[in-house]
């Protein structure tokens, strides 16, 4: 967030490209820790819980691509996430597609939906943009509530996990974990690559000063739309993966509260940081899961933690750490 | 560059060492310990209906089963599914895989219940559902590991529709929430009304979700001159329509009755008698129904929030009591080894408890007991706290639930 000048110069781009996969040294270190965690954690923690974190982390990364780097606050990302889930569940259960194709279908439908909603929404900015995305997402919610294939309130249940490429059965949590981990890491690197590409430089330029980017000859609407579609596609993939993990796709994922939740994850983790959304997703999902045992206290504790985060870490957990160490994470 | 390469190499080197670690070992499973997990809503809409009261009912069942005197330990844990299928599903997975839970109890909210239903079947444990309404649990998605104890939508429609016509409410008008669940309630109830010789004068669809003002729909219902206004909706929609009907004094004078198709005693309690009086609804348990239910309520003692047990909580008691009887009968080790066998034993034994009286469990997992049609008392008729209902009619167990052949359950087709 610190760069007030527009990083369109090739020197800055070259400098960032120089590192491993475009990472700065600190980021590469953090990425190493992340990869190590992804590989080691299933031996200690419960794989299904970890898969849930990874799905939400990917969702939050996709969301962060839009708000953190283009400065567009979408309040309708649940539509892409939930619809991706429904499509994956339907194609895997009724059409009998293999899991990788079903997830892909979720991503494709997410991006098509993103193209439609984004095309309308990017014509406005600020609160109007947020309201348009919210309204469109509510329409998707109503569609899911009424359409016969979604099963209404009960959702799509008993979705088979199937076999990867028709060969590797994914019934064991451990096997599925590696697939989910691969999807997450691929999505994470894709987001990172996009952000640190020349395309990403223009995105950031649009965020900082849109008229100036326009004056330099960039069609900012095209860039915004592309970022929106990319974000929607990744959200669809995340939703589809989650549907396979749990074997269900329900209205909870298309509800507007899910759009709010992903904002919360990104805020808690750190807006516009590469690793923030991952940490934020982990924090929120962990709270939902482990506080379940506390019964009625769950919402109270969640509220207190959220208030504490907002008051104490304005930049989000990762943002604050980065600020403390004076590095960009 | 060197630094991050080293980091990656280091991480890679650490992997094989960690790979040698054992899988998280499941907690040592004592052969004579039964673990029961109560999963329900502890913080939302259904907290009073299920919530901590369900756990209290399960603990009473454990105490009264007498199984602990025979050297068997029973542990009861509880969790909040926050009405989210993914949270419920993760909790149950962890319970079964890591904590050695043998029985999952309660689980209101249909989407969560269906998700848990699949999961428990996959893991061959036991699922005693009390809180969920969907009749799919014993129909298209029935499972040999599941017993659906307390109520379902078919039974509610049958009792409220059929018994109401027998009690004199011949002509109906529906206020229906405009989505699959509302349509199904309206259709099923309408069929029972017609089967008993009543007539349906019309229906109005209210947008869902988001309708808060029901006044125009209520007036439309009033204009139809129907004797019964059926509320084919749930939760906040039902509460709002009942409140606004009271404001319009639609039910005063007793000519028009309001029939709630998915209303519980906890809703009546929060509405208050002044507002809810004259409302007709169906339940399978009422704490003040007879001496046995009063004795059960007495033994249960003070409940959190100073409430009386709901039918869902009573169902948790009844189902766990019966499970523990079956487990004691077949041996704890055998009951723990196979959820299907335990449920089969439960189906083979007649049930008997103070909350629901005598009953049976059908092959499709449906618990059979009578169903009661109640009318909410006026404040002047009520003799004290929680004296809410007067009995209008009873539907016998074999009449109340969907015939086993109509459910499309694969367990009975074979």
Automatic annotation (TrEMBL), chain A:
Signal peptide: none annotated. Its main location: membrane. It comes from Falsiroseomonas frigidaquae. The keyword Transmembrane applies. The chain crosses the membrane at residues 28-46, 53-81, 101-120, 127-149, 175-195, 225-252, 264-287, 294-313. It is a multi-pass membrane protein. Keywords: Cell membrane, Membrane, Transmembrane, Transmembrane helix. This is Branched-chain amino acid ABC transporter permease.
From TrEMBL, chain B:
It comes from the Bacteria. Residues 33-377 form the Leucine-binding protein domain. Keywords: Amino-acid transport, Signal, Transport. InterPro entries: BCAA_transport, Leu-bd, Peripla_BP_I, TAT_signal. Residues 1-30 form the signal peptide. Gene3D superfamilies: 3.40.50.2300. Belongs to the leucine-binding protein family. PANTHER family: LEUCINE-SPECIFIC-BINDING PROTEIN (PTHR30483), PERIPLASMIC BINDING PROTEIN OF ABC TRANSPORTER FOR NATURAL AMINO ACIDS (PTHR30483:SF6). This is ABC transporter substrate-binding protein. It comes from Falsiroseomonas frigidaquae. The lineage of its organism: Bacteria, Pseudomonadati, Pseudomonadota, Alphaproteobacteria, Acetobacterales.
């Amino acid at each position: 967030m610190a760069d007030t000048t527009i990083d369109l110069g090739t020197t800055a781009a070259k400098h960032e490209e120089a590192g491993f996969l475009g990472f700065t040294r600190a980021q590469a270190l953090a990425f190493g820790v992340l990869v190590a965690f992804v590989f080691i954690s299933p031996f200690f923690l419960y794989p299904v819980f970890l898969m849930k974190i990874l799905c939400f982390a990917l969702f939050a990364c996709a969301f962060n691509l839009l708000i953190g780097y283009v400065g567009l606050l979408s309040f309708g990302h649940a539509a892409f996430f939930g619809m991706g889930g429904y499509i994956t569940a339907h194609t895997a259960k009724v059409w009998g597609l293999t899991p990788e194709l079903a997830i892909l279908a979720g991503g494709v439908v997410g991006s098509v939906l993103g193209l439609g909603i984004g095309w309308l929404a990017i014509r406005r900015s600020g609160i109007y943009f947020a309201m348009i995305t919210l309204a469109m997402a509510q329409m998707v919610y109503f569609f899911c509530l009424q359409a016969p294939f979604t099963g209404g309130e009960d959702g799509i249940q008993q979705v088979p996990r199937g076999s990867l490429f028709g060969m590797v059965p994914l019934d064991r949590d451990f096997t599925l974990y590696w697939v989910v981990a691969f999807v997450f890491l691929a999505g994470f690197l894709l987001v990172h690559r996009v952000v640190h590409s020349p395309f990403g430089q223009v995105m950031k330029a649009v965020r900082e000063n849109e008229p100036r980017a326009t004056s330099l000859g960039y069609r900012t609407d095209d860039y915004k739309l592309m970022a929106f579609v990319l974000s929607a596609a990744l959200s669809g993939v995340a939703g589809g993966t989650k549907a396979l993990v749990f074997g269900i796709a329900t209205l909870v994922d298309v509800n507007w509260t899910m759009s709010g939740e992903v904002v919360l994850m990104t805020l808690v983790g750190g807006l516009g940081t590469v690793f923030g959304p991952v940490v934020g997703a982990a924090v929120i999902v962990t709270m939902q899961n482990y506080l379940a045992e506390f019964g009625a206290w769950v919402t109270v504790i969640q509220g207190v933690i959220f208030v504490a985060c907002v008051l104490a870490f304005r930049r989000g957990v990762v943002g604050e750490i980065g600020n403390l160490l004076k590095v960009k994470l | 560059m060197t630094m991050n390469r080293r980091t990656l190499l280091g991480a890679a080197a650490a992997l094989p060492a960690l790979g040698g670690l054992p899988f998280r070992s499941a907690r040592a499973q004592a052969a004579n310990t039964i673990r029961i997990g109560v999963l329900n809503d502890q913080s939302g809409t259904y907290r009073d209906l299920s919530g901590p009261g369900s756990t209290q009912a399960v603990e009473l069942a454990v105490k009264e089963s007498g199984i602990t005197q025979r050297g068997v330990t029973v542990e009861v844990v509880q969790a909040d599914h926050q009405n989210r299928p993914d949270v419920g599903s993760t909790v149950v997975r962890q319970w079964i895989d890591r904590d050695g839970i043998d029985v999952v109890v309660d689980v209101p909210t249909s989407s969560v219940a269906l998700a848990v239903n699949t999961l428990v079947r996959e893991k061959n444990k036991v699922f005693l559902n009390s809180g969920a309404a969907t009749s799919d649990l014993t129909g298209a998605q029935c499972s040999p590991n599941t017993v659906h104890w307390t109520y379902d939508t078919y039974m509610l429609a049958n009792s409220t529709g059929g018994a109401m016509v027998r009690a004199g409410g011949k002509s109906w008008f529906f206020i229906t929430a405009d989505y699959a669940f509302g349509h199904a309630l309206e259709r099923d109830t309408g069929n029972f009304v017609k089967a008993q010789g009543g007539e349906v004068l019309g229906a109005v669809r209210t947008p869902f979700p988001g309708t808060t003002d029901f006044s125009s729909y209520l007036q439309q219902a009033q204009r139809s001159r129907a004797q019964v206004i059926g509320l084919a909706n749930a939760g906040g929609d039902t509460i709002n329509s009942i409140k606004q009907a009271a404001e319009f004094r639609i039910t005063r004078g007793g000519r028009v009755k309001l029939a709630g198709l998915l209303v519980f005693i906890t809703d009546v309690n929060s509405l208050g008698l002044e507002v809810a009086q004259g409302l007709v609804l169906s339940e399978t348990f009422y704490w003040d129904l007879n001496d046995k239910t009063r004795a059960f309520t007495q033994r249960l003692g003070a409940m959190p929030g100073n409430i009386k047990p709901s039918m869902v909580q009573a169902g948790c008691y009844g189902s766990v009591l019966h499970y523990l009887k079956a487990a004691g009968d077949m041996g704890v080790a055998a009951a723990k080894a196979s959820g299907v066998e335990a449920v089969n034993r439960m189906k083979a034994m007649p049930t008997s408890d103070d909350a629901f009286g005598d009953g049976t469990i059908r092959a499709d997992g449906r618990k059979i007991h009578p169903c009661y049609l109640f009318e909410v008392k006026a404040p002047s008729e009520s003799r004290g706290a929680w004296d809410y209902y007067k009995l209008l009619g009873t539907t016998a167990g074999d009449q109340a639930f969907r015939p086993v052949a109509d459910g499309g359950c694969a367990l009975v087709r074979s």
